[in-house]
Amino acid sequence: MVIPNLVGAGLIVIGGGIGLGQIGGKAMESIARQPEAAGKIQTAMIIIGALLEGLAFGALILGA
Length: 64
What we know:
By secondary structure, the protein is mainly α. The chain has helices at residues 2-33, 38-63.
């Protein structure tokens, strides 16, 4: 059936968006608290964001 697949895909996209928003928000908060560590925080944020997007795309492919 198509409907459960679409619901699952929608949940995956929503979850990925929420996760990326949390990563970005917490990273900005951390940079505001410790500006001298901005480079390390930004690097970690980009790596974690890329891994999260890869996980979401993989789940979309497997769920479709």
